[in-house]
Amino acid sequence: MTYRLSNSLPYLVTRAGIRARDLFNQVAKTHGLTVQSYRVLAALLEEGRPVRLGELAELTAIDLSTLSRTVADMHRNGLLIRDRPERDRRSLQVRLTPLGRTLVLRLTPVAARFEEVETTGLSQREITALKATLKQLYRNVDRLEEELMRKGMARTEAEPADEMQAKLAGLHDTTT
Question: Does pLDDT of 47 surpass 90?
Fold first, then answer.
């Protein structure tokens, strides 16, 4: 079977996600938010407690440097509070403000409606199976990342981009 981008699973999942994200972003902007800031608010509401930045990055699937900027903006806009825990003054944790809580509660029904429309035509069993499958795919990508890092084909966020480019140049030299 020939690989076709237009029928590849990563492409199809990304394509659907980008469309939904862009549309939700339009709605979020009417409330002064972005999709990322909505995700931060929704994750904090779900957790119901102050959350450290690293954990929040995992919960929201937002890389740490982008999340730091997003959290700073949200703090300035009065949507969340940043503080340092008593036991670990080096780490930063965030929690919702009443305004942040109000906004996320206002947008949560919109997010639920998006999911309802996106899953139209699927049974509850299919929706449950799809969510389980997507979670498994995410775990599989974690394993793929580990494999690629062992082979030097992926880099950690801390690895300079020029080192990665040198590795890719070496790969190119062996394929031409």
Answer: yes
Percent over 90 (pLDDT), the chain? 78
Burial status of residue 115 (CB atoms within 10 A of its CB: 0-12, 13-18, 19 or more) = exposed
Helix intervals (H) in the chain: 9-29, 35-47, 53-60, 64-76, 98-118, 124-150, 161-175
Res 95 pLDDT > 60? yes
Q: Is the Cβ–Cβ distance between 107 and 89 less than 8 Å?
A: no
Backbone angles phi, psi at 117, to 5 degrees: -70, -40
**Under 8 Å CB-to-CB from 77, ≥6 apart: which residues?**
32
For 13-40, the pLDDT digits (tens) are 999 999 999 999 999 999 999 999 999 9
Q: Which of 110, 90, 88 is nearest to 41 (CA)?
A: 110
Q: What is the pLDDT of residue 90?
A: 74
The answer to whether residues 40 and 53 touch, using CB atoms and an 8 Å cutoff, is no
Closest by CA position to 73, among listed 82, 60, 83, 84: 82
Q: Which residues contact 20 (CB under 8 A, 6 or more apart)?
A: 114, 118
